[in-house]
Specification:
Length: 289
């Protein structure tokens, strides 16, 4: 009997050791990947803390760290960085809320409502994802110009509201929800709107958070479209404003990197606050449907 137990114990011990080794290897690989992605952020911060004499040096640690780059950035009368920051926050938040509202309605309709031509219309809409965004640049500009929305924030936000990815993403999530929940609601007399508002939407918080982060980042980092639409210096978003700090023949690395550090702070905070929703959404949604 003892001879039977010993191999079993050894086998379990070997399995436990192999799992431990596999977990250690996994953590090491993930740590290396994290370091790889953090290196640009660290280099940006280090350069922002360097005096001008050290900008092009290869040393990581500044020999004479200084906040002079940040002081020069905020004391520049021709560069209202704080206003640019507020403009970017306003545009990104407004675009995110509007896209979440429109895409959640459209995604639920494609996932749950039965109407003629639904599949054909959805397929046609998804096909537009294969087109590069630059194709829509001139038509969107002409449309915004005809609407009289040049040099306005609605002109910056409006074209992004027609995005297809959010509709597709939320449709996939709504399809993953059990239909029995909504059928139970109908038995209790709930309408389609009630099922959407009180059942489907509260359960879709992880997916909405994920789409919100993606939308916010896209709007926050967008440079080309706001640069085409906005003309007044005071209305610039942060990426457009920071680009204006670069001269035709000179490049002030300190100020540019200081501005980049400021621009990255909201993104990092947003991700740290909502990262658990991203993981939960990916785990629940996948690529089903």
């Amino acid at each position: 009997m003892a001879s039977i137990v010993r191999p079993t114990v050894r086998a379990q011990s070997n399995i436990g050791n192999s799992r431990l080794v596999g977990r250690i290897i996994l953590y090491v690989v993930l740590t290396l990947i994290a370091i790889f992605f953090l290196l640009p952020l660290l280099w940006m911060l280090v350069t922002a803390l360097k005096p001008s004499a050290e900008w092009l040096q290869s040393n990581w640690i500044p020999q004479n760290p200084t906040l002079d780059n940040f002081n020069r950035l905020f004391s520049n009368d021709n560069a209202p960085v704080f206003s640019w920051f507020i403009n970017s926050i306003g545009v990104s938040v407004a675009a995110t809320l509007l896209i979440l509202a429109l895409d959640s309605l459209a995604g639920y309709a494609y996932a749950r409502l039965e109407f003629r031509g639904r599949n054909a219309l959805f397929t046609l809409m998804i096909a537009t994802l294969a087109l590069p965004g630059i194709v829509f640049l001139v038509p969107n500009y002409l449309t915004i110009n005809n609407l009289g929305w040049l040099n306005s924030y609605q002109g910056v936000i409006a074209p992004g509201l027609a995005g297809v990815f959010g509709v597709f993403f939320l449709r996939q999530f709504f399809q993953s929800l059990p239909k029995e929940l909504e059928e139970a609601g109908r038995i209790d007399g709930a309408s389609t709107w009630t099922n959407f508002w009180q059942i489907a939407l509260p359960l879709s918080v992880p997916a909405l958070a994920t789409l919100g982060i993606i939308t916010f980042l896209a709007s926050w980092n967008d440079y080309l479209w706001p640069w085409l639409i906005l003309q007044d210096n005071s209305k610039y978003t942060l990426p457009v404003g920071l680009r204006s700090l670069q001269g035709s023949f000179t490049f002030d690395y300190g100020i540019i990197m200081a501005g980049a550090v400021i621009a990255s702070v909201p993104v990092i905070i947003l991700y740290l606050l909502l990262q658990r929703y991203i993981i939960q959404s990916v785990a629940m949604t996948g690529l089903k449907g």
